[in-house]
Design brief:
Elements: E1 6-8, H1 21-29, E2 32-35, H2 38-47, E3 54-56, H3 62-74, E4 79-81, H4 95-103, E5 108-110, H5 116-121, E6 131-136, H6 141-150, E7 155-160, H7 165-175, E8 180-185, E9 193-198, H8 199-208, E10 215-219, H9 231-240, H10 245-256, H11 260-268
Parallel strand pairs: 1-4, 1-5, 2-3, 2-4, 6-7
Antiparallel strand pairs: 7-10, 8-9, 8-10
Length: 269
C-alpha cells in the first residue's frame, strides 16, 4: 500500500467501535498524532492499545504548529491528524496545515470513516440528493433567518448544541411556519434519537424532553412550487443592482401581475 507523509484520520463520533482497521493501523504506524484535545484522543488510543505520541493541534494554535509539522515531515517522519470526533476539516481544525502541505509538495491522504453529517443523512429520507451544509449556525436571530431564506430551495444541514436547539427551532418556525425538520442527537450512542416532523411538533417534543448531546439538524426545502415566483429572491436581486423600493415594486408588479403595495411592503422588511 502506498505510503504518505500526512494522514487525515476520522475518529468515532460516539461509539468507539466505529473506526476502521486502516485507521488503527495508521495511528499505530505514524510518528506523531496531531489532535484537538490530547485527553479525548488518548481515550481512543488506550482502547486500541496505540502508543503513538500526541501533540495538540486546535483552532487556537493552528498557525503556530505549521512550521513544527513541516520540519517534522522534512525529517522523514509521518503525521496523522485527528479531531475529537468525526472527520477533520468538517467544522474542525486542519485547513491551515493541509494548505501548507500542498504548497510544500508533501503527500497526504484522507481515510474514509465516521462523519456526523453522513451518518445523520443516511437515516433521513429526502426527495432530492442535493443539500447545503452550513456547519454551526450563526449566533444571531437575523443571521439565521437570512441563511434560511437564502437556501430555502434546498435542504439545509447544520450542527447545533443542545442548549440552542429549541431557540433555533423557534427561529425556523418564525421564518418558515410550515417547515419540516429532522433532528439527530447522540448519534451512534445508546440514546441515539432521530426526529422527523413538523417544526411545531419538534419544538413540543424538546419542550417535554430537554435534549442532550451534540446535534445535527436538517430543514427540509420549502414546498414552494417550481412555478411559484420567489418574490424575496427577486427583490434581493434588484436591491443588489441598486434599485429603490418604489422602482422594485413597480417592476415586479408589472412583470408578475402582483399587488404593487404588497411588493413595496416586502421591500421594506
Amino acid at each position: 500500500m502506498k505510503e504518505y507523509d500526512f494522514y487525515i484520520v476520522p475518529t468515532p463520533i460516539g461509539n468507539l467501535e466505529d473506526i476502521t482497521l486502516r485507521a488503527i493501523n495508521i495511528l499505530k504506524s505514524v510518528d506523531l498524532i496531531a489532535c484537538e484535545d490530547i485527553r479525548v484522543t488518548q481515550k481512543l488510543l488506550n482502547h486500541y492499545d496505540i502508543k503513538t505520541k500526541c501533540i495538540s493541534y486546535h483552532k487556537f494554535n493552528e498557525k503556530e504548529r505549521v512550521n513544527f509539522f513541516l520540519k517534522t515531515l522534512q525529517e522523514g517522519k509521518k503525521i496523522a491528524l485527528v479531531s475529537d470526533a468525526g472527520t477533520p476539516l468538517f467544522c474542525d481544525p486542519g485547513a491551515v496545515i493541509v494548505k501548507e502541505l500542498k504548497e510544500n509538495n508533501f503527500s497526504l491522504t484522507s481515510l474514509a470513516g465516521a462523519n456526523a453529517v453522513v451518518t445523520f443523512l443516511s437515516q433521513v429520507p429526502r426527495e432530492n440528493e442535493d443539500f447545503i451544509f452550513v456547519g454551526f449556525l450563526p449566533k444571531t436571530k437575523s443571521q439565521i433567518e437570512n441563511l434560511i431564506k437564502k437556501y430555502k430551495s434546498t435542504d439545509i444541514v447544520f450542527y447545533d448544541s443542545p442548549n440552542r436547539i429549541e431557540n433555533t427551532l423557534k427561529i425556523i418556525k418564525a421564518t418558515i411556519p410550515d417547515a419540516n425538520v429532522a433532528i439527530g442527537r447522540e448519534l451512534t450512542k445508546i440514546f441515539e434519537e432521530i426526529i422527523i416532523n413538523s417544526v411545531d411538533e419538534t419544538i413540543k417534543h424538546f419542550e417535554n424532553n430537554p435534549p442532550k448531546g451534540e446535534i445535527v439538524g436538517l430543514i427540509f426545502r420549502s414546498k414552494q412550487q417550481d412555478n411559484e415566483i420567489d418574490i424575496d429572491e427577486k427583490i434581493a436581486l434588484l436591491k443588489s443592482k441598486n434599485f429603490r423600493a418604489k422602482e422594485i415594486s413597480l417592476i415586479l408588479s408589472e412583470l408578475y401581475k402582483l399587488n404593487k403595495n404588497e411588493v413595496y411592503k416586502r421591500c421594506l422588511t
